Amino acid sequence: MRPAFLALLLILALSNASSFGYSRITLHRTWEVTSSGPFDFTGALAVNDSSQRVVAIMTEPEMERYVDDNGTIMLRYHGNGSITMKADAIVDINYDPIITSDPAVPNKPLNSTELTRADEQIAIKAGELSSDESALKTIRDLVNFVHNYVKYDLSYWGKSKSAEVVFAEKRGVCVEYTHLLIAMARSLGFQTRYVSGYAYSNAWQPHAWAEIYLPGHGWIPADATFAQAGVLDSTHLAVRKSDDQSASYDLLLSSDPDVDISAQDSLETGFTSEDPKGVSLALDIDGQTYVTEVRLTNSRPDYVLGSYNLVVPDSYGGEQLSVMLLRPNETLRLYHGMNHSLFDDGFLYTVPVSASFNDAHDEKTLTVDRFSLDGNSSHGYEPSGSGCAPGYMLATLCIIGIGVAGAAKIQ
Questions:
Q1: Phi (first) and psi of residue 182, to 5 degrees
Q2: Is 109 a domain residue?
Q3: Measured between alpha carbons, how far is 172 from 14 in angstroms, rounded to an integer?
Q4: 84: domain CATH number?
Q5: Model confidence, pTM
Q6: pLDDT tens figures, 335-386
Q7: Domain count, the chain
Q8: Gap between the Cα atoms of 76 and 63, Å rounded
Q9: How far is Cα 53 from Cα 366, in angstroms, rounded to an integer?
Q10: Alpha carbon distance 39, 382 (integer Å)
Q11: Cα gap 97→99, rounded to integer Å
């Protein structure tokens, strides 16, 4: 029989402002089969696992259902002639892994596919990022590295580049981010899965991310495109899990040499809700030094991986996005400085600053009054160096000297 493959092409813009709480999503999948004879169809509907629960399924015509080893609900149908097949799934989504321990890195490289193979350079870089005693810190640092290393490039849509090519070219879309992240994780001995599905960014769009197996716990979701891990935003709807992008397809078998299949998906949001999930955030700005302090407090007795976001006006630094790791009952203090040289005498500045960790957020506005100063006045303070308080954090998040003025400038 002649096989026809229907691949899910994955593309997603970088901006995503969805909540990290709960959501209910309805997925509508439609397949159009053109055939002059009998055919056998096998396709994925949606994943049913600890992060998303499929609460209802409807198919037309009635299709056989089964669940594969990765928790994907698969559909089978034996038909004859051209037909339109439809399947709907109502899915409740809530990413909140309860991580009670932080094991060591496995450090036993695993075999990979052609698309997720790690060459020597990839393996060396992964080794540099690894914290042997902490698998969670290593996962965090791998996600942040790939997020910052790869430049999002829409011209890569549909190309499905291998990890080796991505590491050399430093460009891609979500498929490429995910292939490189998987290659680096497997070179350190972590089991991985490639997840294809959807996420919301101004509209519902196909997306890809990874899952990394944490020894003693289970699968941890990791999205290098969005710089998310552990707790993902609740629009991440997983359709299928596999080894890499090449296995994310539906299959049609037929003796008809002209058999063809096309697919169209649509999604509806039933509800979304915010949930800080035990983490609080407070933001303060020192009016003399212009240093922003962000305090993250984890009131939970377990580890929390999440997405940290600092937003300032684009012309003076813009958005900083990265994965953070909070230990049980830990408080982190992150410091972000402002470059005094950006504030000219004779002007009044108002600077909005906001910070978030998943659904915990705070915002403040700094007023810088240089309007009343004469030309010889200065604050006599020029921040330099790290300025970070010690803690379980990424040093790159504690940035001193980045300009954040400019929301309003009045002379």
A1: -65, -45
A2: no
A3: 12
A4: 2.60.40.2250
A5: 0.85
A6: 988 877 778 888 888 889 999 999 999 999 988 887 765 544 343 333 333 3
A7: 3
A8: 6
A9: 44
A10: 72
A11: 6
